[in-house]
Amino acid sequence: MTGTFPLSHPISVDEVPQGGATVKISADESERKALAEVYAVAGVDALDAVLTVKPWRRDGLSVSGPVVASITQPCVVTLAPIVQRVEEEIDLRFQPSMRIRSQGKEISIDPVGDDPPEVFDGDSLDLGAVVAEHVALGIDLYPRAPGARFDVEIEQEDEEEDEPSPFAVLERLKRGQDE
What's the whole-model pTM score? Predict the structure, then answer.
C-alpha cells in the first residue's frame, strides 16, 4: 500500500527493528481537509493512531493498534452538523506482492483461521493509507442526531377507485360473482 493518498506515512520494511517500533500518526490540518474530501464528509476534526509495527516472517510487517478520528457530517434527518467519533482497531499482516507472486500456488483461505496477509508493492508500506482506510470503514453512512426522527405521513387513497384492485376481482370470481 503506497501511493499519493492524502495521509501518507511510509515505513521501510528494512528500518523496522527486530523488536518492533511504535509509530504515532496524527493528521495535520491540510491532511484532514483532503481526507474530508475523500470521505465526502463536512470535516475531519482529528485523526490519530498509535501503531505497533513488527517484522513478520522474512520480509513482511505486522501492524496493530488503535485509530481514533472525529468526523463532522450532516444528520440525514435534520441536516444539522453532528460529530461522530470513529474508533477502529488495526490488526493486519502485510507481505510484499512479489513474494506472493513468486510462490505461484493457489491461496487457500480457512474461514475460521487467521486472515491471509495483505500485500504491498516495493520495500515500504504506507501506514497513513492503512489508517485512513480503517477510518473510512468506521464512518456511519447515515448519521442521525440524537432524538432526530423522520416522520412521514402517508395519505390514504379513497376506497372508491375507478378500477377495482386485481385481488378484489379475483375474490369476486372465486365467489362466482361476475361483473
Answer: 0.74
